[in-house]
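This part of the workshop introduces the protein records we will be handling. A learned vocabulary of local backbone shapes supplies the integers on the structure line. Getting from the letters to the tokens is the skill we practise here. As an example, a complete record with its sequence and its structure tokens follows.
=====
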Amino acid sequence: MPPAELSSLRARVAELEAENARLREAAAAELAARDAQLAAAQARLAVLAAQVEELRRSLGKDSSTSSKPPSSDNPYKKKPPGPVAAAPVRAKAR
């Protein structure tokens, strides 16, 4: 191979290696940014999940299951019936 052609190929290889390094750095920076976004989204998800759980717990509370006064109960929500007491057993007359 003539020296001029060899020199030209070496120069092209150097250009390609430099471009490759630049692209790798850009990809690494983009990946780091996406990792940060993912971590922030996961943290926000954990906060929201905790809020949902707290809201579900408070939704099931009324004056019979918490220290709330009866006046804070929802007037439109029917209360479940309480346990039915068994009829007293009478002794048979002799």
Summary: The helical segments are 3-59. Residues 63 and 69 are 5 Å apart (CA to CA).
